[in-house]
Amino acid sequence: MRQVLTLIADPAVFTLDDAVAKQARAALADLGAQTAPADWLVPSIACDIGFDGLNDDQAQAAVAKALAGMPVDIVAQPVEGRRKSVLVADMESTIIQQEMLDELGDLVGARDRIAAITHRAMNGEIDFKGALRERVALLAGLDAGVLTQMIGRITYMPGAATLIATLKKHGVYCALVSGGFKTFTAHVREQLGFDEDQANDLIVEGGKLAGTVFEPILDKDAKHQALIRITAAKRVPVAASITVGDGANDLPMLMAAGMGVAYHAKPSVAAQARARIDHGDLTALLYIQGYRAEEIVVA
């Protein structure tokens, strides 16, 4: 079979079984596709269904309709080139559970105001650069030491450590590219084992946050350029990359990559990305690439 459709469940809330896989196969067959029996990547969590005779969008739409109401993610793609050699990941609300500017807003009594701007920027409603400058300005006068203190608030998305550990074991180059701040990306890179990190830098004057950020600001175009730079440096085509993010500033890199994954993303992002994970954890990125239970490093 030249195409493969992967079903992925969140093991905390739903168990995949043969009955669900048969429903998916039947939906494909009803449209005239040839299908293969379910190939279980991880029992009860993820399986592949090989198929021919439909394009990816047709297959995903048919199975999504058949499994409507089930907390199951569905990704269809060609079998060839499925495993990628480069990962470029957003950090906030993707690899970690926080938006760190929102957390910093707590310290100046402006969390709700900053969070509202963050939400609008991540949904593509307002310009990211302007939104970043506006939020950072509210932090002026804070002791620069609060950045290190805020590291203690970082918690990782379920599956993040396993994702990076597994990819690294299999020789994948992993980059963290964030519109957030270097203090936090450097910590996450070191803790999880990313190969590199790229982010914005806050300006500090006299030990205090100046309320400004060094230019140029790393935004959606910079993330896209990072993807191009990294794949060129590794001497692999952009098609050999997988990217993941949740916000509008991730869209260019999601659209350019061989596989761009919208992870629990804002509606405008989920609607445009090549693949979307609405239910599973970050190990879903392993199943999308066909990793099996015995290949996964549990971290």
From TrEMBL:
<dbReference type="InterPro" id="IPR004469">
    <property type="entry name" value="PSP"/>
</dbReference>
<dbReference type="GO" id="GO:0000287">
    <property type="term" value="F:magnesium ion binding"/>
</dbReference>
<comment type="pathway">
    <text>Amino-acid biosynthesis; L-serine biosynthesis; L-serine from 3-phospho-D-glycerate: step 3/3.</text>
</comment>
<keyword id="KW-0718">Serine biosynthesis</keyword>
<dbReference type="GO" id="GO:0006564">
    <property type="term" value="P:L-serine biosynthetic process"/>
</dbReference>
<protein>
    <recommendedName>
        <fullName>Phosphoserine phosphatase</fullName>
        <ecNumber>3.1.3.3</ecNumber>
    </recommendedName>
</protein>
<comment type="similarity">
    <text>Belongs to the HAD-like hydrolase superfamily. SerB family.</text>
</comment>
<keyword id="KW-0378">Hydrolase</keyword>
<dbReference type="GO" id="GO:0005737">
    <property type="term" value="C:cytoplasm"/>
</dbReference>
<keyword id="KW-0460">Magnesium</keyword>
<dbReference type="GO" id="GO:0036424">
    <property type="term" value="F:L-phosphoserine phosphatase activity"/>
</dbReference>
<keyword id="KW-0028">Amino-acid biosynthesis</keyword>
<keyword id="KW-0479">Metal-binding</keyword>
<dbReference type="InterPro" id="IPR036412">
    <property type="entry name" value="HAD-like_sf"/>
</dbReference>
<dbReference type="Pfam" id="PF12710">
    <property type="entry name" value="HAD"/>
</dbReference>
<dbReference type="InterPro" id="IPR023214">
    <property type="entry name" value="HAD_sf"/>
</dbReference>
<dbReference type="InterPro" id="IPR050582">
    <property type="entry name" value="HAD-like_SerB"/>
</dbReference>
